[in-house]
Every structure is written in structure tokens, then in C-alpha cells.
Amino acid sequence: MASSSSARPTANGDHRPRPPPSNPSNSNSNRHQHYYPTTSYHSSSSSSSASFKGCCCCLFLLFSFLALLVLAVVLVIILAVKPKKPQFDLQQVGVQYMGINSPDPNPNPTSASLSLNIRMLFSAENPNKVGIKYGESRFTVMYRGIPLGKASVPGFFQQAHSVREVVATIAVDRANLIQADAADLIRDASLNDRVELRVLGDVGAKIRVLNIDSPGVQVSVDCAIVISPRKQSLTYKQCGFDGLSV
Hints:
By secondary structure, the chain is α+β, with helices and mostly antiparallel strands. Helices cover 27% and strands 47% of the residues.
């Protein structure tokens, strides 16, 4: 026997199957299935940006801490070593040549030229427990405040508790002096047989601890020398050194 719910006669007597009743829940799900939330993408993007910034901040703090730690260790080692300034001393001055020329035979010439070649031997003493790295050193010879010539000494490394010789050769080729300076030079050379010169220099040094160089310091060299033109020799020397400890 056929079920009464499967088909009903219509007004004209036809039997057609009745469609199944619609489910409200299925209708609602079909109606809303194409709508997706839009806040998840923005939330994940903002969280990734915050995570990246936090990572950068952590790395910056880490590197800053490591740099401060290394600096603190170096400072502790330097304070423990108690570095001292290097000591310089002018040992010898060799006069290889000195010549004075004046085109004017008068006692008070208006111009004169000086040629000079001297060799200076310094001793550098390192009293520290660690080595010292020297930069290029420069020296200038002057007469009455007038620069006549310059010399340079290449940089070098000096071991702890050691003494090293440093040679500087200054060559002056016909340095011209005029008026009062020329007259003073001729008078000093011909009448007094003494020409007083001044040698100035700057020596850069750095204390080296564990292959790390400390900030550089300058050691100033100031020497007064007197040369006899007739004897071509040195008759007097006196040097002063002004150094700063690290």
C-alpha cells in the first residue's frame, strides 16, 4: 500500500510527489556560507609586525650589552695594568753637514741660506707590562721660530719592558732666511761659532692589550741643540718630553 505522504491528488486528479519540507537550519547555513570574517588577516599581519619589532629590539639590546661588556673588560684590564707613558731620550746628534751662504758680503746681509743634515738618535723605553704601538712620528727643525726642514719616522711596535733606538734624519737644502733672521744667522755662525736650533716632534702611541689598542696619546718632543759650523759638530743639547698616560 502506498504511503499517503508520498503523493497527493491535485485539483485535476494528478498524483505528483510532494517536495520534502525545507529545513530552516540548512537554509540559514546556505544563506551565510559565502560570508567570511575579514579581521583575521589584519590581526595576523599586526602580530607579525609586532613580533619583528620585538626581535629587533632584543637584538639591539643584546649587541649593546655585549659591547658594554667588552668595553668594561678592556677598562678593567687597562686599570689593572696601570699603563705608563713611554720615555724618550735624545742619545746622540750627528752633524753630517752644515753650510751657510750669503750673496751679500756685508756684515748685515739681507738674505742668507742654510743647508743642514743632522742625524738624531733617540732611545724609546717602554716601562709597561704590555706592548706599545707607535704611529708615524714627525720632527721639524727650526731656527728662531722659522721651520727649516722636516723628518718622519715610520711606526713600529715595541715589546713590554724594552728599550728601542729610533733614528730621525733631518735634511735642510738651502733654506732661505731674509733680513733680521739672515743677519742673526751670519752673526751666530761667523762671530759666535754657534747656531742654536730647535727640534720639535710629535710621537703617537697606543697601549695594546689583548690585541686591542687603547685610545691614542701624543708624546711631544722639544729639543734645543747648538751646532758649531767650524767644527761641524754638536756642542750642546737639551730635550724635554711631555707625555700623557692613558
